[in-house]
TrEMBL record:
SUPFAM superfamilies per the UniProt record, alphabetical: S-adenosyl-L-methionine-dependent methyltransferases
Lineage: Bacteria, Bacillati, Actinomycetota, Actinomycetes, Kitasatosporales
Source organism of the structure: Actinacidiphila acididurans
UniProt xrefs under PANTHER family: 2-METHOXY-6-POLYPRENYL-1,4-BENZOQUINOL METHYLASE, MITOCHONDRIAL (PTHR43591:SF24), METHYLTRANSFERASE (PTHR43591)
One example of a Gene Ontology biological process annotation: methylation
Keywords assigned by UniProt, alphabetized: Methyltransferase, Transferase
GO molecular function per UniProt: methyltransferase activity
InterPro entries linked to this entry: Methyltransf_11, SAM-dependent_MTases_sf
Protein name, entry field: Class I SAM-dependent methyltransferase
Length: 254
């Protein structure tokens, strides 16, 4: 289940891509399939190990083109272990709502992104997220949980202040909103509640079968209650010539 729309965030074979706060790796896997040189970075060592294992399985299964590469590693979003201008693209999906210093995260993204490179940032949408907070304190008052809710204009202003230039936005995952509202209503850890179990089965069926009816329904509902807000931006090019060739340890992604 991808939040980033790769028709709006195009990648070329061989692009250096950082999935910052990769979690389970869904976007990193898609970039790998598209022939990128991927670094999946997260603070959670268990998720890093799992993502690394899936990278190996994908390679062994022949799911990635020649020249693609991928590595998973632990790291801190506020202190990225890469030199300036190391990456062609950066994905920051469902991360910034967890980190107190969100401006610091964007500053690091700008630093490691080459001039002309792209970034995709996704966060929970204000309206659906506000309902979750109202229904359940346990939804957000946990260690490492959500500490803020972004309005769309607030996130875009953060992006502009960092020096990036937004070029597009959209919403995603409308069909997942009722699931989280149900979980918050009955208890976020109550996986056995009948409404939660039934709706979860519906979501799994939709992900596996990809029926046209639910695809069209979600497209129609995304502008209204899409769970995620997605913003795309570029790092302006240098004014006096072509972008410098990035150098250094980003070649770990090769």
């Amino acid at each position: 289940m991808l939040t980033v729309d790769f028709t709006r965030f195009p990648l070329a074979a061989g692009d250096r891509v950082l999935d910052l706060g990769c979690g389970g790796g869904r976007h990193a896997f898609e970039c790998y399939r598209r022939g990128a040189r991927v670094v999946a970075l997260d603070r959670n060592p268990d998720e890093v190990r799992e993502v690394a294992g899936w990278f190996v399985a994908m390679r062994d299964a022949g799911e990635v083109p020649a020249g693609a590469s991928a590595v998973a590693m632990e790291g801190d979003a506020l202190h990225l272990p890469f030199p300036d201008a190391s990456f062609d693209a950066v994905i920051v999906s469902e991360v910034m709502e967890h980190i107190p210093d969100d401006k610091g995260v964007l500053a690091e993204v700008v630093r490691i992104l080459r001039p002309g490179g792209r970034v995709a940032v996704t966060v929970p949408r204000y309206g659906p997220e506000r309902v979750c907070w109202a229904l359940s304190d346990a939804y957000h008052e946990v260690e490492g949980g959500h500490i803020r809710i972004y309005r769309a204009d607030e996130l875009l202003e953060r992006i502009r202040e960092s020096g990036l230039a937004p070029y597009g936005t959209h919403h995603a995952h409308a069909l997942h909103v009722p699931y989280w509202w149900l979980k918050c209503a009955v208890g976020v850890d109550n996986e056995q509640a009948l409404p939660v179990r039934l709706y979860h089965k519906l979501l799994v069926w939709d992900i596996v079968k990809k029926p046209l009816a639910t695809k069209l329904a979600e497209q129609a509902l995304n502008p209204v209650i899409g769970k995620s807000f997605v913003a795309y931006a570029t790092k302006p090019r240098l004014p006096d010539g072509p972008s410098p060739e990035p150098a250094g340890t980003a070649d770990a992604a090769r």
